[in-house]
Amino acid sequence: MSAPSSAGSSASAPASASAPVTGRHPLFTAPARRFMRGWLAVAVAVALLPLALRSGYQFTVLNVVAVNLIVVTGLNLLMGYAGQISYGHAAFFGMGAYGSAILSATHGVDPWLAMGVSACGVAVAAAVVGVPTLRLKGNYLVMATLGFNLIVDVILVQWSEVTGGSSGFVGVPPLAVAGISFDTDRSFYWLAWGVALLLLIPARNLVHSPVGRALRAIHDSEPGAEACGVPTASYKVQVFVLSAVFASLAGSLHAHYLGIVAPKTFDIFKSVEFVTMCLIGGMGSLWGGLAGALLLTVLPQMLGVFEEHHDLIFGAILLVMLIFMPRGVSPWLRDMAGRMRRGSGGGTSDSTPHGGEARP
């Protein structure tokens, strides 16, 4: 994404209350340092957690959390910061998975190269889809992205000579680096979480760049952003493409981890799940995306002991959370972090509701 020019400098006006321009590089502000401290704390927790895990199944669940986090990070840029709703990201997730699987297993392409080629293909597809659909707003945009997801789902099933149809595509090779193969739950854990955490850093820097301020201006008032000279159509398509690439990378990791991809994994219900992760975690919060991915991946597994009542209890918990925490868990996490900083003499919390540095 290119930063706004003279028009873009005016773009910060609608979002000025939430993202003041200090003139300092976004990597060196106090909130940026707080973000990095939080990032390091999560990285340390991820590094130490395997010491407490006792089964491969526990690694599997956490690996799925990491893959979901990558998708939700990109989706949060689109929905939480730019205000554009998408119920079609499972399609990009699936396109990345199938593209990487077919290129590496059928055509012998190196898996890492296959991931890159798939991401490029998804970027082109997202641009083609995004240009017309992002002219729509509200429910019409929701229906358009749902329709796109349904089309991709049908193609994955019907194009059986390439995709394997409803039975899925098998024989996807694992990823490897310098002779080290990520073909076990434990080894893939390090790869998945490494990628997920690393992608949080450029996402955070984008949010607090001039482009990020323009996206928040679009979120708050698209007509106002246009009046300030922000090329809203261009920015919406660019962030749509970027979020689709995040989903593609996650899909490729998913395929090379499991060794099999099936169309059922990428239907519209998966798109709804991704959106729900954003909502539960907190729209416009990168740390909220982590919380949402963790809650909606781990909680169903924990409720499995209730057998036939599992879905009922899970639905009730989601309903209660959405009623009593309509902004997700991120405000609660931010308040808790602020109290911890005040208790340690670290200053007050920045609780700006839109785009403040504390928001990620």
Automatic annotation (TrEMBL):
One of its GO terms (molecular function) is branched-chain amino acid transmembrane transporter activity. It comes from the Bacteria. InterPro entries: ABC_transp_permease, LivM-like. One of its GO terms (cellular component) is plasma membrane. It is a multi-pass membrane protein. Keywords: Cell membrane, Membrane, Transmembrane, Transmembrane helix. It is found in: Cell membrane. The chain crosses the membrane at residues 35-53, 59-78, 112-133, 140-159, 165-182, 189-207, 239-262, 274-300, 312-333. Residues 349-360 have a biased composition (Low complexity). Residues 1-20, 341-360 are annotated as: Disordered. Pfam families: BPD_transp_2. PANTHER family: BRANCHED AMINO ACID TRANSPORT SYSTEM PERMEASE (PTHR30482:SF18), HIGH-AFFINITY BRANCHED-CHAIN AMINO ACID TRANSPORT SYSTEM PERMEASE (PTHR30482). This is Inner-membrane translocator. It comes from Nitratidesulfovibrio vulgaris (strain DSM 19637 / Miyazaki F).
